[in-house]
Structures are given as C-alpha cells and as structure tokens.
Amino acid sequence: MVRAGGRKGSGVSARAGSEDARPSREQVVFGVSGLLAAASTCPALPRPVPSRPGPARLLGQDSKLPSSVRNTLLELFGQIEREFENLYIENLELRREIDTLNERLAAEGQTVDGAELNKGQLKAKASHSTSQLSQKLKTTYKASTSKIVSSFKTTTSRAICQLVKEYVGHRDGIWDVSVTKTQPVVLGTASADHTALLWSIETGKCLVKYVGHVGSVNSVKFHPTEQVALTASGDQTAHIWRYMVQLPMPQPTADCNQIAGEDEIEFSDKDEPDGDGDASSDCPTIRVPLTSLKSHQGVVIAADWLVGGKQAVTASWDRTANLYEVETSELVHSLTGHDQELTHCCTHPTQRLVVTSSRDTTFRLWDFRDPSIHSVNVFQGHTDTVTSAVFTVGDNVVSGSDDRTVKVWDLKNMRSPIATIRTDSAVNRINVCVGQRIIALPHDNRQVRLFDMSGVRLARLPRSNRQGHRRMVCCSAWSEDHPICNLFTCGFDRQAIGWNINIPALLQEK
C-alpha cells in the first residue's frame, strides 16, 4: 500500500486517477496469451439430449429445498446449459472452418500459379494456418468456459455476501472503521477530512461528528466498556473523547441482491459519492477532547485501548509506540526499536500484549503482563511494509503486508508462519472474525476477500458498476453479533459499507 515517494494516511482529495494512485506523505499529515492438433484443443461437446430433464421439468418434481434456493439453482443451471449450447454451436462452426481450410490447402497443394508447390513450402503454409486456427480455438474455448465459471461464482458469492448499507458523508478518504463494544452499537469512521463520524448501522444516519483534530484522522477505536472514543491524527496527537448517541428508528432498506452488473467495471470520479451532500452537517458536533496525548514527534497513524481500557497505546511515524495512562495522560513507556515509520498497532483482547507494524518489514510483539518488565520479540516474515498485524482470541497473530501476502503466526512458535495467503494486490488493515476465525482482507485494487485461518479462500465481496468500493479499500472490521451488518469496510472513495456475510453458508461451501 505504501510506495516509494508516497505514503498513506490522508489527502487533500480522495479522488485517485487510477487504482494504482497513492496519496502522498503530505496528504497523510494534512488531510489527504497440424490442423488435427488444433481441433483437439476444443473437443466437440455433446449436443444436449432433448429428453433429459431440464430445469423446466425439474419444476414439477418434489423437493425439500426452499423455493428461493431452488429457483436460484434452476437459474444457475439454466445459464450453464445455455453457455454449453453456445459452445457447441461455436464448435460446429469452427469445425466447418477446419474442413474449408483442408479443402483449400489440398487445392493449393497441387498448383500455385501453374508451378508445383514443394513439400517444404506446403508444410510451412499449413503450419502457419494451423497456428492461427489453434490460437483462435484456444481463445474462444477459454473465454467461454471462464465466463461460465465466473457467472457461477459471482452469483453464489452475492447470495452469501450482501451489501446492506452505505455510509456516505465524509469529504475525503476514510482510513479506519470500527464498531463499538457497548450498547448502543454504532459504527465509527476516521477520515482524511480531519473528522471522525459515528453512524447508526441500521439507518446510515450520522449521529456524532468529532472535529477536534487539525490533521487527518487516521484511526478510531472504542473503549471496551464506556461511550468513549480514541482517535489518532496527523496532527501528532491522539484524542480521547466522550460521546452520547440516540439511535434513530430504522428505515426499510433496498434489496441490494437485485443489483446486477459485471464484476469488474472501471469507474470515473463522477461515480464517487458526492461529498457536497454532507450527511454529517446536521448531526451533533464534538469539538474538544477529554484528554489529548501529545508525546509524539510525528504523525500518529494508529491507536488502541489495552484490555480494561485504563491504558492506551499509540503508533507514530516517529518510529515509536507510546503507552499511556488514560486517566492522567501520563506516558508510561516509549516503545523503541523499529527502523522506520510505524503503520499500525493492535492490542490483545484479553491479555496485556501489543503488536506494532512498521515500514521496516517487521512487526514486534510487546509483553506487558509482568508489570516490572516488558519484553519484545521481533518478527521478520515479510519483504515489504507490514501494514497491520492483529491478534485473534487464541494464540495467533495475523499480519498483512504491501508484499501482497497475509501470514498467520502461532504465538508459541513465531519462527515461521503456520499459513501464508498470497494475493494479487497489497493488503491494508485486516481484521479477524473472532468466533469463526475468518480474515477479511481489504486491498489496494478495490477488492475485499475472505479467508480462513488455514489460508483457504472463502469468498470475494461483490463489486459491480453499482455497488462496492470504487477506490483503494483501507480497512475492515467485523461485528459478528450484529443482526443486520456483521462486516464493515471503508476506503479512499469516501464511503464505508456494511455487509451481511452468511457465515454458516460460507463455511459450508468450503
């Protein structure tokens, strides 16, 4: 995600010219490839037998499947049958072309302009024609079969992973997303527009706007037991502020399952959410924090609460992480050792453990369980910036990197990863579904993928010309107990998205 000459964190504008565009360092701080062989590559497909039971005949048979599932399956098999029928017709046409070429080559082999064509010339001519036809056959066959598989996977993925709600109101890219651990459950977003917003998950309405920072807000985390938020900023501070929210009545939502479109559509800037319609303009505003943590000499890129909520940890571009007493704002420890800027920090949900990530390709595990001494372990498992490392409830750490890999580690033996996930794009701030142990991977290429802890790919969240992220996806956050949305993502397209992931169906497909 971080490239030479550029840096994540925020920007004056969230409109990137292409998916490979990266925000600059300043933006983070201040806000933004003979003939018989050819024929053999595409064997003739058998013509469908008219008497076999097709989808229409299946309708009259008894089934214990729910009607919605049955209709979906019938539609899928109908699509597959039509694709294979088209393949069969194309195959017949290609075979006719082969016969025509055979006849023409046989005629040309006897006389060409009254002269006898020698064997070498005929062989070269036949070889050239064979090569062209072979390529055409291969291309047609691959494209058709790929379309069948893609259609099946896309429809299945959409049935399991559904877009429920879009949260639009920020005027610049959103770097972080988080969900409260207390009631009422609300969504928090941190943006390059210098604000943090709290949202009603059900209605998508902005509930609270925090404007206390004078730089990009790079992360937001909620206190484990109180209505208190912790934000980190490009203004070199972290703020702790209290909020009070009253949830509005939920409104009916559109069925996003009905949205259709191809999976890979390019977008122009005009397709991005319109920042001029500021959904946060009429919500309550908080301007002053309870306390400000000011010990860093550079951008504070992330912050998190230690278990219990009495202490907080911050990570900065000054190459240090700081541990604070929340009540007094006192600096308890300055954690040094990273050779380059830090990119993320995360705390263990039940133990006094902290993991920090850095551009120096390492992540470090800091142990504060013994009050008299804190120990540190350095882990070198990546070849590029470690964008995030997070704990699971058990003894695992999951790390993501700009080297396009995600690795799962065992805390008891961190010499080598127990699983490695290789992807096609840089990985940003990952999150793990604690109960089901599913990793959500947000990517620079606008995709979000789901994997299990053994590295098996489970799904890719749907993207089309009418739904999904239009720019780099920066962060993911699970809220597995929420009945409407159990996964949230945010990105440089200035929107956060709430998803409903059918986890039992997802794991059953695996």
From TrEMBL:
CDD domains hit by this protein: WD40
GO CC annotation, single: cytoplasm
Signal peptide (UniProt feature, chain positions): none
Major location category of this protein: cytoplasm
Domain of life: Eukaryota
Keywords linked to the UniProt accession: Coiled coil, Cytoplasm, Nucleus, Repeat, WD repeat
Pfam families registered for this protein in UniProt: WD40
Cited SUPFAM superfamilies: WD40 repeat-like
Coiled coil, from the record: 84-111
Extent of the WD repeats: 167-209, 210-241, 293-334, 335-376, 379-419
Region (Disordered): 1-25, 42-63
Protein name: WD repeat-containing protein 37
